[in-house]
Write a structure and sequence with these properties.
Elements: H1 3-12, E1 16-20, H2 22-28, H3 34-42, H4 50-58, H5 63-90, H6 95-99, E2 105-108, E3 116-117, E4 122-123, E5 127-131, E6 146-151, E7 191-192, H7 199-203, H8 278-292, E8 299-305, E9 308-314, E10 319-322, E11 325-326, H9 331-343, E12 355-356, E13 378-380, E14 392-401, E15 411-417, E16 428-433, H10 442-452, H11 455-458, E17 464-470, H12 472-475, H13 479-485, E18 496-502, E19 505-506, H14 513-532, E20 536-537, E21 546-550, E22 556-560, E23 567-568, H15 605-622, E24 623-624, E25 629-630, H16 645-657, H17 659-666, H18 677-697, H19 714-721
Parallel strand pairs: 1-10, 2-7, 6-8
Antiparallel strand pairs: 2-5, 3-4, 5-6, 8-9, 9-10, 9-11, 12-13, 13-14, 14-15, 15-16, 16-18, 17-18, 19-21, 20-23, 21-22, 24-25
Helix pairs in contact: 1-8, 3-9, 4-5, 5-9, 15-18, 16-17, 18-19
């Protein structure tokens, strides 16, 4: 299992709501009119094209499934749009309502053998839903509307003859009276099938090359556990076990089945929700690529295991999946899904409505990353903070992209402020993130630091030029309504936070070892005064958070940035236990104590000092100050960023506990960084003494855990650097 797969599985566990009804999913996530959705489900006569269905069922490899499925989809969408148009006409809907939301989409697939690049990965998605204008080019993740992931593990249906669905009841519109109407029908399907010589040639096509599917790989788990409470569906005919919708006029909706939501809540706890499988994580990985490509609010996709289908929703707080259905037994349900894909607008595809892409793009270098596609786009955040004259920006570059699914989702852009009446504004940094509701906003924390710190230390804190927030309710995120009937136990809600500030330099750009040392000491001292004077503990130190600015005379000053995970300290210097359930920190720089698999201890001041030490080691090994770049990770510390907390903790423990381990790491320090070796050695001795004290004396009366027996303090840290605190 890859590192990404493992971490995403852990990321999703405990934050996954399952068994949302199909009706609720397509109306809440993809914005389909509830009346239209109910009509499609209740209509009879849906058929699956016989020959593509036969080829789809007979496919022995996944790529052989793509084109037959796309032909089935085109036929169903064409029929669905015709059916919906007639339905709206009978309902006397206006022509504008009938045609306003038609979208020409394309099921893009190159037999799963075309690479879409991202910062850390090269992906070969099975099928993408994109707008038709990108048909003739390889789409980028920025333009992907939804992702479809195929598996062929369910038993195929040989010799099947598709028949019309005959038993789906009409869905009562009154059950969802408040949902907004946002879709209608067109006279044509609006879907184009991937162009290959023929469907038959697809079935006999060449095998897709995919490193994740080795020839002799052991079979993975199926998408459902044996004891799953989700109604089972058969792949060999018959109707699903989903009950019919409630009678017309009923105000109580049941939570089981495909058609309704429900007033009765079924809380999703980690022990009740099956762990997301490696196959399902593949779809989550593609959703992550979509979210990382821009300021997108959410992503969605379809997981198809031969004939069994589930729908998936991903945002920075949770993952939501629908009940399974069998599209051979229930073609009306597939018709609804495909119609919804063809009719949902950009907002309901999850795109940020405040981000406007340029009509034409500047040339991109061959080695650019996918998140650079937003370059030249404009984002207008003034509606989030009407009292500010600022808030409109042009994106120049992507400086940082969060590589997790659930969490802060931080995206940092270099931007040009667009202010009426002002020209040639200096570039700034715009940070878009999703912090927990339980935490102070970063803008408020920075304001507190500026208010409480002395001027000498205030200049090492970032200068904010704009901030704004919006909650999930204000953004009308689908999860707000979906989690009312399928709540997640101990759910950690998040809001959108936009923060613009002056643009600062990265550590490796500082230019020399001497300048780096000055910046490093500035940040250590600023961190101490933030804790003592402003009563704020940073708690998320990493190489990306120690930055610098240059003065008029070319001098450098350290900037301690990224205060979004900071905690306020009580008057007695006690750190209140966090109410957040999502672990903080960047693994290579996290203190060993905090890498506990379960129930990490409260975050202490000494944990941040330990992070400073790891940052110093990392910089000595990996920064080329002359060329202003980072070097590849040295093998001696590769496992500091291991896929499991246990491995990373054990590797750091041996580094701290054994001198020969430290010497092995320090042996990789290049000659031009020899000036850092005294610091590395002295701090190594300090943390080793603290480690031995913990091993030998921690049970002694009066032994201080907050400083590991009085060893890990700010003044001892500064003494190891040979610096006197200012």
């Amino acid at each position: 299992m890859s590192i990404v797969t493992h971490r995403l599985q852990e990321d999703i566990q405990g934050k996954h709501s399952c068994d949302v009804t199909l009706f609720d999913f397509v109306t809440r996530v993809w914005g389909i009119d509830p009346d239209v959705a109910g009509h499609i489900l209740s209509s009879k006569g849906w058929t699956l094209l016989p020959e593509p269905l036969r080829l789809y069922s007979a496919a022995r490899r996944e790529p052989q499934m793509y084109v037959p499925f796309a032909e089935i989809a085109e036929s169903l969408v064409k029929d669905a749009r015709k059916e919906v148009r007639e339905f709206l006409t009978r309902r006397k809907a206006t022509l504008e309502a009938q045609t306003g939301m038609e979208t020409s989409i394309y099921f893009w697939s190159k037999l799963g053998d075309t690479i879409l690049k991202s910062a850390l990965t090269k992906r070969k998605p099975d099928m993408l839903v994109v707008k038709e204008e990108v048909v003739d080019v390889t789409p980028t993740w920025l333009l992907v509307r939804q992702v479809i992931e195929f598996k062929r593990k369910s038993k195929s249906l040989q010799g099947i003859v598709p028949t019309a669905s005959s038993s789906t009841s009409a869905y009562p519109p009154a059950l969802n009276p408040t949902a907004s109407s946002s879709s209608a029908a067109g006279s044509s399907s609006g879907i184009r099938v991937p162009q290959v010589s023929s469907v038959a040639s697809s079935v006999s096509g060449t095998k897709r090359s995919r490193t994740s599917k080795a020839k002799n790989a052991a079979p993975r788990r199926t998408t459902r556990s044996k004891d799953s409470t989700t109604p089972a569906t058969a792949s060999s005919g018959g109707r699903s076990a989903d009950p019919a919708p409630s009678p017309a006029g009923s105000q109580k909706r049941k939570n089981s089945g495909t058609h309704g939501g429900g007033d009765a809540k079924r809380v999703c706890t980690s022990d009740k929700v099956p762990k997301v499988t490696a196959d399902q994580v593949q779809l989550a990985i593609y959703a992550l690529e979509c979210l990382d490509a821009s300021t997108r609010h959410y992503a969605s996709g379809v997981f198809i295991d031969r004939f069994k289908v589930s729908l998936w929703y991903y945002d920075r707080s949770c993952v939501i999946s629908s009940v399974l259905f069998d599209f051979h037994s229930n073609p009306e349900q597939l018709a609804l899904v495909l119609y919804a894909l063809s009719a949902c607008d950009d907002k309901h595809a999850g795109f940020d409505p405040l981000l406007v892409l340029p009509a034409t793009r500047s040339p991109r270098p061959k080695d650019y990353m996918h998140w650079q596609d937003v370059v030249d786009a404009e984002i207008d955040l003034r509606t989030l903070n009407p009292s500010s004259e600022r808030g409109r920006f042009r994106l120049e570059d992507t400086l940082f992209a969060y590589r997790g699914l659930i969490g802060r989702g931080t995206m940092v852009y270099q931007v040009t402020p667009l202010i009426d009446g002002l020209k040639d504004c200096n570039s700034e940094a715009l940070k878009i993130s999703w912090p927990p509701l339980t935490r102070p906003l970063e803008a408020d924390t920075i304001q507190r630091l500026h208010k409480r710190l002395q001027p000498q230390w205030r200049e090492h804190i970032p200068e904010v030029t704009f901030s704004a927030t919006q909650t999930a309710e204000q953004l009308n995120l689908p999860r707000v309504e979906l989690l009312k009937t399928n709540p997640i136990d101990k759910f950690e809600d998040r809001l959108l936070h936009a923060l613009a500030m002056k643009l600062y330099g990265k550590l490796w750009d500082v230019g020399s070892v001497e300048a780096f040392q000055e910046v490093f000491v500035d940040c250590v001292e600023c961190h101490y005064h933030a804790y003592v004077d402003a009563k704020v503990l940073h708690r998320d130190l990493s190489e990306n958070n120690l930055m610098f600015k240059r003065g008029d005379a070319g001098t450098v000053k350290g900037i301690l940035n990224d205060w979004d995970m900071a905690s306020y300290v009580e008057a007695n210097n006690e750190i209140p236990l966090s109410t957040a359930t999502h672990r903080t920190g960047t693994i290579p720089f996290m203190a060993r104590d905090l890498l506990a698999d379960d129930d990490p201890p409260p975050h202490l001041f000494r944990h941040d000092l330990e992070s400073f030490y790891y940052i110093l080691v990392w910089a000595a090994l990996h920064y080329d100050f002359a060329s202003k770049r980072r070097l590849p990770i040295v093998s001696a510390v590769k496992n500091w960023d291991a896929p499991t907390f246990e491995t990373a903790r054990d590797k750091k423990n041996t580094f701290i506990a054994y001198k020969h381990e430290r010497n092995q790491v320090f042996g990789n320090v290049p000659p031009e960084h020899e000036a850092l070796l005294p610091w590395l050695t002295s701090l190594g001795v300090l943390f080793h003494k603290a480690h031995m004290s913990e091993e030998q004396d921690s049970e002694s009366p009066g032994w201080d855990n907050d400083t590991l027996g009085g060893h890990i303090t700010f003044h001892n840290f500064m003494a190891a650097l040979g610096r006197i605190p200012r």
